[in-house]
Specification:
binds 4-fluoro-L-phenylalanine; two-stranded antiparallel sheet; mainly alpha; Hydantoin permease; globular; single chain; 77% helix; 18 helices
Amino acid sequence: MRENWVSRAGFILAAAGSAIGLGNIWRFPYVVGTNGGAAFVVIYLIIILVIGFPLMVSEISLGKMTQKNPVGAFKALAPDTPWWLVGAMGVLSGFVILSFYSVVAGWGLAYVLKTLQGVFTVSNTEEIFVGHITQGLQPVLWHFIFMVLTTIIITLGVVKGIGRSVKYLMPALFVLLLMLVVRALTLEGALEGVRFYLQPDFSEITFGSLLSATGQAFFSLSLGAGAMLTYGSYLKKGDDVVSSAVWVIFLDVGIALLAGLAIFPAVFALGFDPSVGAGLAFVTLPAVFAAMPLGNLFAFTFFLLLSIAALTSAISMLEIVVSWMVDEKGITRFKATIGIAILIFILGIPASLSIGAVDISIFGISFFDFLDLFQERFLLPIGALLTSIFVGYVLKGSKLRLEVNQDSKKLKLGAWFDVLIKYVVPTAIGGILIAGWISLFSS
Ligand code: PFF
């Protein structure tokens, strides 16, 4: 028997748990920081509404309609066609993304311990960060610990593992984040950071920002990898998809915005640079915390929050692959989870080492950066593009919409949904994708 979420709230928490992760706490603030601030946030919100929402509804209901993993879902809806390959690409995405995601999550766990030891000062954070990630064995060990936590939850199953853990972890995450926001906003000089974050200056926007905003949207909403499809497959007939999708998007965007509100005011108030890039959370923030009273406590809170967010996302990536093995290959959940987790852990080792300990590079970039670029420029956007084409053209226009509306209590999808999924979403992704490839290969 296939498991079902215990309630609609259970599904929303799990799906929001998948969406809210390193993408919100670590990536969103630094991408905003390097793309000029508020104007980028506006573009991001538009992309979420126009591309993210229709895709979120589509993925969840493809899962719900078929009650299957990504490969099985496409097979059921389009038998004897190659469309199942879109599902297979999703399974590959879950596998690839988790391998390096777990490495970064491992840094987060290591930092929880470091903040307890109180090692940070205003001037030593870069040294500590570089020392940690290039050290070789240590980050691999933390990657291992993080994979063990993820594995334990997934072996327990959808209700006892995923459902029960998000029920406690998501509220905890929210409370911790609110604490940080209040702290940041009450610092002297915080307002300048709020301005940078919320007062748009559109002259800062370039094509590169558009590309980053699209990549960030897919990654943050867990779209294009079949995660939402997989979670949707544990919904019951009759469950409302549209309002759940709205909730998940609202929570994901809300938490990303709050993360920025916890970070930028503090960065500005204490005189740091918001545009340092990927080191913002691991280099700048510990220094920011070290410069404020009770800084260790807030630093501890931040990295605990980051680790929790990462864990509830990681379980969804592992679940994509596990659900495929359980459904399609008839392997028990326990065996599938352990086997896949070991393979993902192994793929993560060269990713972790390539950052500095050992020279492992592909096409002139580190193996870690290669995996990240591969998901951002190929796996997620192509997965999302093909999903929209499938829903718009293969499922015959409004079939998915009619199906979704049957169970939709308040919010119904109108004909505008067909326009979005058939024309707007594929054209927008296709255009951005191709332009992105041109800039990638010409650089
Ligand atoms: N949405 C997650 C985050 O923002 O950290 C990352 C993610 C999860 C991407 C699941 C893809 C996925 F299938």
